[in-house]
Amino acid sequence: MKKEWFFDRLCGAQVAVYAEDGKIAEAAFERGNSAELTGNIYKGRVCNLVPGMQAAFITCGLERNCYLPLGEGAARFTAYDGAGNAVHAPELKEGDELLVQIVKPPRGNKGAKVTCDLSFVGKTLIYLPRTDFLGISRKITDISARERLLKEADKLREEGAGFIVRTAAEEADKRHLKIESEYLRRVWRSVEKAAASAQVGDVVYREYDLPLKVMRDSLGGGVTRIYVGDKETYDKVVQLARLRPDLGERKVTLYQGTREMMRFFGISEQLDRLADRTVPLENGGYLVIDKTEAMTVIDVNTGKFVGERDLESTVFETNLTAAREIARQMRLRNIGGLVAVDFIDMADEAHRAAVDEELSRALALDRTKSRVSPMGDMCVTLFTRKRTNNDAADFFLQPCRHCTGLGTVFSDVYLAIRIRCDVCDRFADAYESAVVECSRALAAALLSGRYLTEETRGIWADKRVYLIPHDDWDYAKFTVRGDNAAVLTLPDTALLLH
After folding, report:
1. Which one is the CATH code of 411-496: 3.40.50.300, 3.40.1190.20, 1.10.8.60, 3.40.1260.20?
2. Has domain 41-205 been given CATH number 2.40.50.140?
3. 88 has pLDDT over 60
4. pTM value > 0.85
């Protein structure tokens, strides 16, 4: 089986895709102007204490104040086996300045959730400079390995601090653990130094950007090739790959084709489907996925599938297929939080249990932890999936400006990427000019967001790209055509991007 990763930087956004035999299994996105905040450390100030909620609200320079729970202690480390002294809530008063780390990014009208119990994540260890806790991943099941790793980690920690041994440490030797622990301590010392002179709202530590986080947390497991479409990203990936014995520089390839990399490898079309509400099933049924403020709701439908026996068997088979596809979509779209699945009604209790079991089994293949509740009599199953990065919908969609945010339209950055792909195709087909026609609102967004500036100054420097806005076009409508005429006949409203 071919296991390939694709990294690229397009229109200021970063994209990472994992594919098995050409079929995408995982995707992650980061917008350049709003990169993932989780893990960042800010210097903040207490602006409000709410004793009834056992919480403080912290201003950190973000759009909304951050939420700091005061009674949580070391609860966020309970996902690991371990022991340590309880972390006491800090004694705070309004106006106090402190360092906080984002553990959940802002969503909708809610500000980010933060903690004072800072952590620094490495490949094999998580360093906790302010938390007296020694833990280990539950996925390391070999008893002798657990004992060895905990013993080594205990030797490395200083008083009042702690370590969590990650799953990737199972094969690590004590030399590797020591090198990484020393590196993480240096990072913490640099944060302390930066915080000493920082102002409220300053970022004193930033998490890795998307490709480096993926390489730290996800790569390995027989990856056969890594394709990178951007030279700057390629250089970073190569540097990290040289430090990874399971990868090495030889597996990293800089894509230099004339067509956009994701489209050339057949990835773009699959990514486009992540913006769809409807997901077809292999047997002719389909899912409908809707996101609300509180949860994600999934409806299962038989569609064209009529089965070969009785109704109960048809429904049962569709629900089993749906359970497997739901788990795949959770990973692909990076959906987190509470999920409600309305399966098709089944009368047989054994069938309900089997669907629950299949859903739990399929979700267990995901690195991100999920917890499934038993299906009720109405054939509705609830499960939770830990939130990690923003889900795909946050990248592909944005609130509609004409319906007070109740609906969504394709995001500016997603449309810019699609236009970029089409322009690349026109130039790959030997055209010297590309003419982009679109709605006036989209044209304004492309210009104000400067989404294509890097391309017009770089790979398209010897080409011409024209933008023609239309007042009566729908927001997301656009066309791209090539032209080789020495003098083009264009309307007065046409704009030359380069």
Report:
1. 3.40.1260.20
2. yes
3. no
4. no
